[in-house]
Amino acid sequence: MVSDSDWIAQWRRGALELCVLRILRDRMSYGYEIVAVLSRLGPLAAGENTVYPLLRRLRNEGLLEAVMVESSKGPPRQYLRITAVGLEQLAARLAEWAELQDSVSQCLERGSEV
Amino acid sequence: MTPDGADEEAYLSKFRAALHRLKVAGASGIVADVRGHIAEAAADGRSLEQALSALGPPEGLARAYAVELALSSIPQNRWSFRALARLASLLIGASLVSLLLVPSLTFLAFTFLVTGAFSFVFALIELLIVDLPFIQNDHISPLQALGASIPIFAAGCLFVWVLWRYLRYLAASARKEIAHLRAAPVPLMRVIAFDSAFPVSSISWTPRGDARQTWSLPASSPPGRPVRAAEGEDPCRLERYPGH
Q: Distance (Å, rounded) from C-alpha B195 to C-alpha B73?
């Protein structure tokens, strides 16, 4: 049987990528800040060792790009910005997410009566 | 170097070694990223100890990168032999054909365009303004020359068009083959074999336009050895892995 933590991990893994893209849609941010935002979202809280590799993959796939920005608190920071491809991908995934959410809601409400 | 700096370097050095062991592409960039993340955490008031403990053991972090990057739907710099062979044959074939076609079409296009244009201009001058003694047109009247210049020029235009279409076709074919080459699928074998210490329980993938397929990896399969190599499949997705 799948444990509770495994169950949440499975859900989180799918949703995390979508949430990271959504966080970066409005403004660019850096890795640590993204982890901090996610940590405020309960079950979506993911450790650095999950988020940083994900950010790297999204960059490799061209959905995000890195920009160096001067920081008053130390050396220049590497900010991440969503690309045009990333925005396209986000729009498509949001639509899929809405569809999935709707289907799951229907199933949970009505069971086999759907 | 401060004790903190030494700790950070020791962590990053172990992390780099683990990335190399797992054959993760772009290891130096990833190490630089993690160094930046540590600096971000420090700038936000975390101690180095807290920052490193949040990252987890260097081997675990390297494994997380290896797994995450193996999920990539756009493989980076993967070259398939089939795509490479196709590109090579296209280049050889196109070179041989081009060797004959391009100079011939260029010569024909140039000759017909120039002949057509000159014939038209000189015939018009002879017809309307003045007789040109240096123009040899014993058997053709200026009116006939004028009439003939138009189809000659049109033929020149046709050759230019054919040449243009041929070059565009060549460029499009090369672009297509290079795109094939860059998007060559990651062999499934690689994903299964990349880390013997990592217990993957099942792998799902969706070949283009096909239904999702899943493999369950037998617990008895020797670690690090491919269970099956699926040639030509789309990049696969690791479905479950503990700890993430």
A: 19
